[in-house]
Amino acid sequence: MPMETIAVSGIPFPVSRIALGTWAIGGWMWGGADDRQAIATIHEALDLGISLIDTAPVYGFGHSEEVVGEALVGRRDKVAIATKVGLDWKDGKPFRNSSAARIRQEIEDSLRRLRTDRIDLYQIHWPDPAVPLDETARVLEDLHREGKVLALGVSNFSVAQMEQFSAVAPLAAVQPPYNLFERAIEDDILPWSAAHGLAVLAYGPLCRGLLSGRMTAASHFGSDDLRSADPKFQAPRFAQYLAAVAALEAFAKERFGRSVLALAIRWVLDQGPTIALWGARKPEQIAGIDQACGWTLSAADKVEIDRILAAHITDPVGPEFMAPPGG
Ligand code: NAP
User: Fold this and answer.
1) What's the half-sphere exposure (Cβ side, CA atoms, 13 Å) at 65?
2) Does the CB atom of residue 204 touch ligand 1 within 6 A?
3) Nearest atom (ligand 1) to Cα of 31
4) Domains of the chain
5) What does UniProt give as GO cellular component (predicted)?
6) 203 lines ligand 1 (CB under 6 A)
7) How confident is the model at residue 297 (pLDDT cuts 50, 70, 90)?
């Protein structure tokens, strides 16, 4: 099936609705990096029709951006790069910093690591309450006018914060957590974004691998893997989520002849002006991408999915554990 695409205001070509997420490629919080595999994964993604890659300076403290830059040598013009700004780090620990001075430094560091002269989509990674939002928006608008950045986005922002930002600078996209298990944005961010023409880059569409269908009660995560601190992956909740995945897997197979992973990505794509940021670090992890394209879920299918979720997950929890300090 051909890849579906979506226009993002400011990016010169429609981008794929499945994007490659490269947090794990940076290694940090994902149990280490394998650059050879990572570069092969990026090349596989491009070959499969992905034309949007999401990264961030903090992913491996520069490493993810460097690997993306290396992988895109000779192929830069065929792909849009989305990176982020506003998280600094010290001694391996991130903290929020969206000051104008920090942003002026970060853009140059990102352009160098990514081996490019422009960022297609530049997103504030997390809101920084210590810096007036207008200051942050104004410097980003300057970078936009200078042509270093083609489109602006925000991540982990509320609607009120997006309204404040848009009063100063044009906002093209928002990047919130969104997957079958984490649906808080349906109350406000998703409808607001649809009404204002923003693309919604849904992060964690597989809920950090839970919706891949490959996890079992025996799956173990090392102390340097964020899932060791993720409340969804701890007993007794882990069993509830695994049971929901098993029931979704049975539904996906019986109703569509597809995997739960394809169902999870399809569901994100069917919720609005969304882009699924599929995190992968091995080529085989995205090999089944076409399974998620070229079909849709009906309203009745979505009702059945909601029934399955409610039947199994009696003690739901969100992704709040991921927020860096200073919020
Ligand atoms: P995700 O896409 O829900 O899950 C990614 C993980 O799922 C992979 O690292 C892999 O884990 C597993 N996986 C993927 N495909 C698989 C397959 N075919 N079979 C088995 N396992 C598979 O989660 P995410 O990486 O957290 O989120 C995606 C992207 O969103 C990130 O890379 C990043 O670009 C972005 N993001 C942004 C924010 C933000 O604050 N803005 C926060 C989180 C993420 P293993 O390799 O360990 O098996």
Assistant:
1) 22
2) yes
3) 47
4) 5-210+262-294 (3.20.20.100)
5) cytosol
6) yes
7) very high
